């Protein structure tokens, strides 16, 4: 009886939390394309796809996978140059937008509560949705490798909290992300570089959208690394225009020789930076 009461109480809380409400909003700094996130108050309250971290973990048999067409170096970004790039379309952009914190912060992002969550969302235990949720929770509960900080965020407030734990409590936190691609855009096509500019150098946090009934992002940061972020304006062969986030890891000397970026670009660890385009459903957090 007690367990049934706990489950019913949890589901009632979940229903109330995810009921009606508007997607949280922010504002855009038009000068550099950085989405500025709201600062926390003093009291502290305020889809299926291949994520980038999955693409970077491909094995040698995946080198011909179209999703691997995201890697390049800084010298490849030359105005007028054309290259094949993989940008999956976004069928429903709202899927990737955060719900307000008051609708998600009471909901445990925990494998322990997966059965109750599945019942609430009417997903069977053997469904694709259940498998995706299970995998997302597994990713969120991973122990961070040495020298890294990681975690999952479900709201702008929790994203700011995570970012300020890295950048410092007085940091102005912003987000850069690629433009949304229309449903008619080919997943893989040739794009020509029209313009590019550097957005940030130094500390940055990469956040990857994970499949879940509401927006969940897996964010990670490596201490002691140097990175650069560019915004690259591209035009596809079908005429589509795109502003793409281009992230460069400047020191690759400690990377595995089997990294897919090296295999695709014909490089070895330490020879060059490795860069990759970010899909529209992922984002880079910068101070």
TrEMBL record:
Manganese recorded as keyword: no
Domain BURP as annotated: residue spans: 71-287
The UniProt record lists the keyword Translocase: no
Signal peptide: 1-25
Entry keywords, A to Z: Signal
Protein origin, superkingdom: Eukaryota
InterPro entries hit by this protein: BURP, BURP_dom
Protein's name according to its UniProt entry: BURP domain-containing protein
Organism, scientific name: Hibiscus syriacus
């Amino acid at each position: 009886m007690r367990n049934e009461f706990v489950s019913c109480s949890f589901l009632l809380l979940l229903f109330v939390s995810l009921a009606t409400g508007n997607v949280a909003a922010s504002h855009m700094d038009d000068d550099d394309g950085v989405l500025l996130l709201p600062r926390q108050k003093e009291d502290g309250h305020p889809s299926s796809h291949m994520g980038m971290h999955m693409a970077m973990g491909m094995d040698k048999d995946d080198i011909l996978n179209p999703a691997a067409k995201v890697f390049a170096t800084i010298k490849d970004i030359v105005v007028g140059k054309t290259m094949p790039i993989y940008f999956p379309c976004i069928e429903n952009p709202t899927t990737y937008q955060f719900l307000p914190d008051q609708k998600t912060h009471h909901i445990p992002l925990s494998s322990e509560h997966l059965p109750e969550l599945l019942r609430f969302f009417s997903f069977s235990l053997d469904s694709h949705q259940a498998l995706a949720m299970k995998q997302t929770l597994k990713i969120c509960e991973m122990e961070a490798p040495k020298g890294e900080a990681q975690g999952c965020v479900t709201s702008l407030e929790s994203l700011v909290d995570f970012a300020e734990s890295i950048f410092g409590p007085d940091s102005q936190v912003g987000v850069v992300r690629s433009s949304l691609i229309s449903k008619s855009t080919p997943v893989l096509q040739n794009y020509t570089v029209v313009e590019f500019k550097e957005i940030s150098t130094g500390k940055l946090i990469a956040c990857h959208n994970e499949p879940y009934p509401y927006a969940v992002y897996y964010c990670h940061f490596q201490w002691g690394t140097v990175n650069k972020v560019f915004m690259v304006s591209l035009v596809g062969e079908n005429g589509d225009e795109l502003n793409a986030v281009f992230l460069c890891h400047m020191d690759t000397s400690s990377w595995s020789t089997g990294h897919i970026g090296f295999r695709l670009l014909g490089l070895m660890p330490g020879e060059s930076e490795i860069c990759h385009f970010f899909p529209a459903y992922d984002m880079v957090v910068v101070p």
